[in-house]
């Protein structure tokens, strides 16, 4: 049976995660031993490269995963399990994320089309396993933004120190975890795709809660990430 590129990718990812699970390893950046991660990383990158080669944008377009919005960048869920979640993010020119973390997850970002700029920052919570621990003794509640999925906010926003910046084009695979850095991603000003940029994000395990760093508002917001579409079907705005 010949599988479509996206299905083939999901099958290869499921196998890669299952293989490590069967060896008794937890899949997350904190508990997974380096040799298990290296094996996983190599299989995941192989599967992502294959998907890019065979699928290009067309397969993701056909699945209904490429949806742009003039209001904000969109997150479009392709597949999810207990081990991982796979989503397509669509960025118009001028759109970008806030500085954010990825909980305990490994995060791989493959550029499918256009160019994105990633800026990395040192993570003030690197190594902290308890989300409730304040980063500063002065930390206190802040007024949260009126957005779906917001759980709360605290002030002040810790000082964010930029540690690196780069632009990535089609076929590039970036990797990040909370032990390494926080980051912000935006559509690069010199993107060569008319609509903006399209990226494929793989998080393992799925990210259930994120911290969004807002220096302008001097607060850190905790939020349950939401989706613009799931399985190619538009999710109703709450
Ligand atoms: Fe991210």
Automatic annotation (TrEMBL):
Protein name: Cysteine dioxygenase
EC number: 1.13.11.20
Keywords: Dioxygenase, Iron, Metal-binding, Oxidoreductase
Lipoprotein recorded as keyword: no
Lineage, top ranks: Eukaryota, Viridiplantae, Chlorophyta, core chlorophytes, Trebouxiophyceae
MF term (GO), any: ferrous iron binding
Top-level taxon of origin: Eukaryota
Family the entry assigns: Belongs to the cysteine dioxygenase family.
Residue segments, region Disordered: 122-148
Organism per entry: Chlorella variabilis (Green alga)
Primary enzyme class: oxidoreductase
């Amino acid at each position: 049976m010949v599988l479509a590129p996206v299905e083939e990718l999901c099958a290869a990812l499921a196998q890669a995660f299952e293989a490590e699970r069967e060896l008794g390893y937890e899949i997350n950046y904190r508990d997974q031993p380096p040799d298990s991660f290296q094996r996983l990383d190599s299989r995941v990158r192989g599967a992502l490269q294959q998907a890019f080669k065979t699928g290009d944008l067309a397969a993701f377009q056909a699945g209904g995963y490429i949806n742009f919005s003039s209001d904000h960048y969109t997150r479009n869920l392709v597949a999810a399990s207990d081990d991982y979640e796979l989503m397509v993010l669509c960025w118009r020119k001028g759109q970008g994320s806030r500085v954010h973390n990825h909980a305990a997850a490994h995060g791989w970002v493959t550029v499918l089309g256009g160019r994105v700029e990633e800026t990395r920052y040192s993570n003030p919570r690197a190594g902290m396993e308890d989300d409730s621990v304040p980063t500063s003794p002065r930390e206190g509640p802040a007024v949260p933004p009126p957005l779906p999925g917001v759980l709360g906010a605290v002030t002040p926003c810790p000082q964010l120190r930029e540690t690196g910046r780069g632009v990535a084009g089609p076929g590039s695979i970036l990797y990040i975890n909370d032990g390494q850095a926080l980051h912000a991603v935006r559509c690069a000003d010199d993107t060569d795709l008319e609509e903006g940029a399209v990226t494929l994000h793989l998080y393992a395990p799925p990210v259930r809660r994120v911290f969004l760093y807002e220096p302008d508002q001097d607060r850190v917001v905790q939020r349950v990430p939401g989706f613009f579409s799931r399985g190619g079907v538009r999710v109703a705005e709450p």
